[in-house]
């Protein structure tokens, strides 16, 4: 087939290119710049090579915060994905309650991160918070500022409260797109409720679940604001996640080199894990359709 | 398997239907034979899917009863009716293999393992899916998937009826023909009662022993393909079946003559006097064009040459008349039409007037 090539078309891409360059490429290059040099201010730079990267990778501090991140994301995904599917299944398919449920579900998503942190910070306080006070009153020794376990539980519950809705909404949309014929066929085949879930709903949700999984992983892996507001990374360093650590290093200690190296490593980890998840998840159970097969 | 009785069946999607127009399906009284192949044929919105859903149990009719054999199943759920249904789009269980798909309805019904193995093996053979039996069903082509949906019904030997809701919609044209032939074969081999909903006359006429033609919520005719062609009970049937459809010309009829505009033609049978709303129906296949002196003069509007024959679209004093001419036959310059008298049907208020009546 003959195609007309028109180089002027590149001009149309230019605005996007400029935008992406300003918002992503140039800032990242700056970070790369910092990560391979040392500076003592005054705009004087010395070449440092891979020194900062070696420093970061050899520091216990880095591995500790990385493992906190991994543990946190793992727990979050284990709770939010099944819970989200469950809630989506329970939501009404039609009727006047649909918009009510959808609005209720969307509500936590509309609240800014730092407000969520503040809400829970106050909610959990023993002196003025409803949750903290109630737990205190029934004799539970709960204090998220001094007890590591309590701090983690609070952050996890807070994240589940904040973000499960996203999984719910995605799953609900996925469920709504399953044609009625599948349910009718399943009834005719005498399938149980569990079979309907296992063989129709879950396979049909695969696409949205991959998205939910990736979004929730990336978001939880980059968590910053909520624990920063709630615990400030404490007690001790027990809730110092990578992003908090990064900010401490870059702005608190002004170690720009190590911070830049760490942020590049951080980003690489996220991209790598997402790539692996995506590849694995979109390949499991997916038989390559035959050529010309209609899907 | 069982005879299906529709007893005073009617359905409206409104809670309190008042007029006839509120009913998506107007009152029906029919008995469908055990082991028959029926096609429900009609344009979109004629109520054929409503009727099918009532038979399958997805819909409870507003009025009347439906019986399988002597059992009243009107209030029963689909799973209790022991029927199978093939939908417009192939419904398969993506994560299962072809074999597991076919086993599924039997496993759910707790059929013994060795019985399942035997039946499923048979069914895979019948459906020509031997080489794909252990492949994931999601990777198959649309027609293969549709075979699996059909197979899931057929493995249950005792189903009362197999219902098809426009099952060939998403199938490629060249596969449609094969799959239809396969269906016909299976019907002959296994003898299930089959009810097939379609708006495609070719599908209906090739598949079914009896075609049920529906129009605006009413069954206008149940008959063999020949009956539908020769003696359409309603002008809609005449128009809907055949390509092009029957010519319907308004006229006055009395005794053995019919007057069309300024012309009079002789009829093969005697009719009572029909002054108003009478129509003459004649298939284009039985209309001849000649340049002789006999016949009624027409103006030719267009000629469509479609290979094996030509369709001549003409106007007879303002009324459309189509004629089918054999391949190579010339269209006369100053044409006159004449009708094969024995093939003429007379209609009053769109309904067929029996000969001699």
From TrEMBL, chain A:
Gene Ontology CC annotations of this record: plasma membrane
Membrane-protein topology: Multi-pass membrane protein
Domain ABC transmembrane type-1, first and last residues per copy: 66-277
Single biological process term from Gene Ontology: transmembrane transport
Major localisation: membrane
Keywords from the named record: Membrane, Transmembrane, Transmembrane helix, Transport
Pfam families: BPD_transp_1
Cross-referenced InterPro entries: MetI-like (IPR000515), MetI-like_sf (IPR035906), Sugar_ABC_transporter (IPR052730)
TM ranges: 12-36, 70-90, 97-123, 160-183, 204-224, 264-281
Family matches, as PROSITE patterns: ABC_TM1
Annotated compartments: Cell membrane
Family under the similarity heading: Belongs to the binding-protein-dependent transport system permease family.
Protein name per UniProt: ABC transporter permease
Provenance organism: Ahrensia marina
TrEMBL record, chain B:
Domain ABC transporter, residue spans: 4-241
Major subcellular site: membrane
Keywords: ATP-binding, Cell membrane, Membrane, Nucleotide-binding, Transport
CDD domains reported in the protein's UniProt record: ABC_Carb_Solutes_like
Location of the protein in the cell: Cell inner membrane
A Pfam family hit: ABC_tran
PROSITE patterns on file: ABC_TRANSPORTER_2 (PS50893)
Membrane association type: Peripheral membrane protein
GO molecular-function term, one example from the UniProt record: ABC-type ferric iron transporter activity
SUPFAM superfamilies attached to this UniProt entry: MOP-like (SSF50331), P-loop containing nucleoside triphosphate hydrolases (SSF52540)
Domain of life: Bacteria
Gene3D superfamilies: 2.40.50.100, Nucleic acid-binding proteins (2.40.50.140), P-loop containing nucleotide triphosphate hydrolases (3.40.50.300)
GO cellular component, as recorded: ATP-binding cassette (ABC) transporter complex, substrate-binding subunit-containing
Transport keyword on record: yes
Family membership: Belongs to the ABC transporter superfamily.
Name of protein: ABC transporter ATP-binding protein
Species name: Ahrensia marina
């Amino acid at each position: 087939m003959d195609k007309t090539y028109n180089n002027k078309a590149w001009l149309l891409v230019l605005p996007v290119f400029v935008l992406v360059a300003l918002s992503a490429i140039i800032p990242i290059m700056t970070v790369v710049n910092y990560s391979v040099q040392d500076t003592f201010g005054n705009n004087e730079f010395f070449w440092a090579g891979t020194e900062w990267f070696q420093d970061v990778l050899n520091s216990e501090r880095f591995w500790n915060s990385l493992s906190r991140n991994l543990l946190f994301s793992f727990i979050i995904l284990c709770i939010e994905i099944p819970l989200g599917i469950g809630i989506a299944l329970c939501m009404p398919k039609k009727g006047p309650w649909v918009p009510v449920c959808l609005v209720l579900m969307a509500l936590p998503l509309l609240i800014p991160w730092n407000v969520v942190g503040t809400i829970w910070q106050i909610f959990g306080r023993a002196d003025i918070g409803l949750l903290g006070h109630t737990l205190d009153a029934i004799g539970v020794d709960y204090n998220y500022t001094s007890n590591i376990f309590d701090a983690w539980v609070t952050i996890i519950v807070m994240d589940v409260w904040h973000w499960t809705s996203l999984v719910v909404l995605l799953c609900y949309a996925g469920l709504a797109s399953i044609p009625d014929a599948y349910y009718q066929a399943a009834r005719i085949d005498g399938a149980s409720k569990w079979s309907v879930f296992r063989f129709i709903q879950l396979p049909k949700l695969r696409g949205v679940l991959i998205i939910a999984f990736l979004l929730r992983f990336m978001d939880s892996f980059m968590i910053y604001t909520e624990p920063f507001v709630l615990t400030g990374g404490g007690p001790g360093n027990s809730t110092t996640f990578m992003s908090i650590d990064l900010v401490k290093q870059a702005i608190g200690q002004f170690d720009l080199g190590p911070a830049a190296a760490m942020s590049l490593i951080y980003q690489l980890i996220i991209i790598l894990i997402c790539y692996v998840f995506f590849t694995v998840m979109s390949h499991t159970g997916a038989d390559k359709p035959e050529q010309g097969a209609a899907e | 398997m069982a005879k299906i009785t529709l007893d005073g069946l009617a359905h409206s999607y409104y809670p309190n239907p008042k007029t006839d127009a509120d009913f998506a399906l107007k009152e029906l009284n029919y008995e469908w034979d055990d082991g028959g192949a029926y096609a429900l044929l009609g344009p979109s919105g004629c109520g054929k899917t409503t009727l099918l859903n009532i038979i399958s149990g997805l819909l409870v009719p507003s009025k009347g009863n439906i019986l399988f054999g002597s059992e009243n199943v009107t209030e029963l759920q689909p799973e209790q009716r022991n029927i199978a249904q093939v939908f417009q789009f192939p419904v398969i269980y993506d994560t299962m293999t072809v074999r597991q798909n076919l086993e599924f309805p039997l496993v759910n019904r707790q059929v013994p393992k060795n019985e399942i193995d035997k039946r499923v093996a048979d069914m895979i053979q019948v459906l020509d899916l031997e080489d794909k039996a252990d492949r994931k069903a999601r990777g198959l082509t649309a027609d293969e998937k549709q075979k699996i949906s059909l197979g899931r019904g057929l493995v249950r030997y005792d189903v009362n009826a197999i219902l098809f809701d426009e099952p060939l919609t998403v199938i490629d044209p060249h596969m449609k023909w094969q799959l239809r032939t396969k269906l016909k074969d299976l019907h002959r081999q296994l003898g299930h009662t089959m009810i097939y909903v379609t708006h495609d006359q070719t599908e209906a006429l090739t598949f079914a022993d009896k075609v049920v033609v529906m129009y605006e919520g009413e069954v206008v005719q149940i008959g063999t393909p020949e009956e539908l062609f020769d003696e359409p009970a309603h002008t809609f049937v005449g128009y809907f079946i055949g390509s092009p459809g029957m010519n319907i010309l308004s006229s006055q009829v009395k005794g053995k003559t019919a007057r069309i505009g300024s012309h009079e033609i002789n009829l093969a049978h005697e009719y009572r006097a029909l002054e108003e709303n009478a129509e003459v129906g004649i298939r284009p296949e039985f209309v001849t064009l000649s340049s002789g002196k006999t016949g009624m003069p027409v103006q030719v509007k267009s000629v469509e040459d479609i290979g094996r024959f030509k369709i001549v679209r003409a106007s007879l004093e303002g009324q459309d008349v189509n004629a089918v001419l054999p391949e190579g036959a010339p269209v006369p310059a100053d044409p006159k039409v004449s009708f094969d008298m024995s093939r003429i049907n007379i209609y009053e208020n769109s309904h067929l007037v029996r000969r001699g009546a």
